[in-house]
Specification:
alpha+beta; Glutaredoxin; Ubiquitin-like (UB roll); 5-stranded mixed sheet; 16 helices; 12 strands; disordered C terminus; coiled coil; UAS; Thioredoxin-like_sf
């Protein structure tokens, strides 16, 4: 293919030449300007058309490619020899994950359920009997507590511990109310709280950490433990620990609970807590599962602020690169989704533009076809009307009364000035005084035919045709217009003679 405007069109592939042809047919743009725009649109005709009409904004394809190239890759985790040996010896990677899974604890709302009144009345006798038996049984257990530990039955210890946990006098509430109560009790005991405790249930805190790719620090306290107060005042509320947790760049969510509450007690059981105060760091472990939350660090028992902070920082340092990689990959995926959405929107806009143009073309073609059809129908109707008019004139020319003789009586002599379009000039003719004005109009209408052939032909009147004269006859002095009446005669209107003039009248198009 020959070069055009310095561009070698022969170097384009068949699909590119087809795209160029489609683009130029729609936009009418010069080839020299169309090819660079198509190249910037990756030879996508729809995108190129949208850029041509809507303006060329940012290149979404280039942005998507740049976003894909700029995805940070997860930094490799560095382990020392001791950690590697421990992992190889106890946690085979092909058999089980390296971190303990973090369960999602949802407290059961069974304690919040209220029995209907009717059922309560039916079960009231059984409830009274149960309370009496339970009272007797607790009394027996109370006396058995005086026995040495070695002589107590196993069920006594378990029943006592269970009774102590369940009869602490704390009302079972919803997780959000429990979190608010824990914060109030914490502030009443240790002063104003400077830690951002999560004000909802542990399951919601775990979901927030998983969604936002943050670390969840779970703190479980037991007021009955001797080291709880010193741990909170000296370690948990130490300036360095509070500053580290409140730093947004560390991405730490703190959830605290009192094991006397039902939810915190369930969390302690699920997380295998055997010593208080208890803390653990939980985060998403992408290398062990895209949706798996794992316990990456346990901090059990009293410890110094330095040791406590070092344990948290070590877990964050070790698993932070994995979360950063997952966070960057998620951001890149979100950007790619947004770019695809923008591309789809641009494609839909271009399709809407094409549909609108196609609709306008169809409407214009339909209007042109309707106008052409209407003009054709009008032309056919005009031709048919003209044909019927000519047939009527030929028929009417045969019925026009002949001119009376010069010596006849009761004759009206009229001088008629024919219209300039007929070319007849001034015609003088005699009419009987009984000649109607309609007969006079017929004489003027058929004057040319009366000159060409004699009357008495065999032409018949066309059916359904009503003739209308395209002129009017008027007298000169005085000015009076005469209508083609079949009752009025020339003798009544003009007497013995007169001068008449024929004037053309523009007929209405519908007529």
């Amino acid at each position: 293919m020959a070069a055009q405007d310095g561009l070698d069109l022969g170097s384009l592939s068949a699909s590119q030449q087809e795209a160029l042809q489609q683009y130029t047919d729609v936009t009418g743009q010069e080839i020299g300007d169309a090819i660079p725009l198509l190249q910037r649109s990756q030879w996508n005709v729809q995108f190129a058309i949208a850029k041509f009409f809507d303006g060329e904004g940012p290149d979404v394809v280039a942005q998507a490619q740049a976003a894909h190239d700029s995805i940070p890759r997860a930094t490799a985790r560095h382990e020392n020899l001791q950690e590697a040996l421990i992992d190889d010896a106890f946690l085979p990677p092909t058999r089980r994950p390296q971190t303990e899974p973090a369960p999602r604890v949802v407290p059961q709302p069974s304690a919040l359920y209220r029995t209907p009144l009717l059922i309560s009345l039916l079960l009231a006798p059984f409830r009274v009997g149960y309370k009496l038996l339970a009272g007797v049984f607790r009394s027996i257990l109370y006396f058995l507590t005086f026995l040495p530990q070695s002589l107590r039955p196993g069920f006594v210890a378990s029943s006592l511990s269970k009774g102590l946990r369940q009869t602490n006098g704390r009302r079972v509430t919803l997780p959000k109310e429990t979190a608010q109560r824990f914060r109030r009790d914490f502030e009443e005991e240790y002063g104003e709280c400077s830690l951002p405790f999560f004000e909802d249930g542990h399951a919601q805190a775990l979901d927030a950490a998983k969604k936002d790719l943050k670390f969840l620090l779970t703190v479980l306290l037991s007021p009955e433990h001797d080291d709880t107060e010193s741990f909170v005042r000296e370690t948990l509320l130490s300036p360095e620990v509070v500053s580290f947790i409140n730093d947004p760049s560390n991405n730490v969510i703190v959830w605290g609970g009192n094991v006397l509450d039902s939810e915190a007690y369930q969390v302690a059981r699920e997380y295998s807590c055997v010593k208080y105060p208890f803390s653990c760091v939980v985060c998403l472990t992408p290398k062990e599962g895209s949706t798996r939350m794992g316990i990456v660090k346990r901090l059990v028992g009293p410890m110094t602020p330095e040791s406590y902070l070092a344990g948290i920082q070590g877990a964050i340092t070790r698993y932070g690169p994995d979360l950063n990689g997952a966070r960057s990959e998620r951001a890149a995926q979100e950007m790619a989704r947004n770019l695809r959405s923008q591309q789809d929107s641009a494609y839909e806009r271009s399709l809407a533009v094409d549909r609108e143009r196609a609709r306008q073309k169809r409407e214009a073609a339909a209007a042109a076809a309707a106008a052409e059809k209407r003009a054709l129908e009008e032309a056919e109707a005009a031709a048919q009307l003209q044909e019927q008019r000519q047939r009527w004139r030929e028929w009417r020319a045969t019925t026009v009364l002949p001119e009376p003789d010069a010596g006849a009586e009761d004759v009206v002599r009229l001088a008629v000035n024919m219209p300039a379009s007929s070319g007849a000039g001034r015609v003088i003719r005699r009419f009987t005084k009984d000649t109607t004005l309609e007969e006079l109009y017929a004489f003027v209408e058929c004057y040319d035919l009366l000159q060409d052939r004699p009357s008495g032909g065999s032409t018949s009147k066309p059916d359904g045709y009503e003739h209308k004269y395209g002129f009017r006859i008027a007298s000169v002095m005085p000015r009076e217009t005469f209508e083609p009446s079949i009752s009025a005669t020339v003798g009544e209107k003009m007497g013995r003679g007169g001068n008449l003039v024929v004037e053309d009248v523009l007929m209405d198009e519908e007529e």
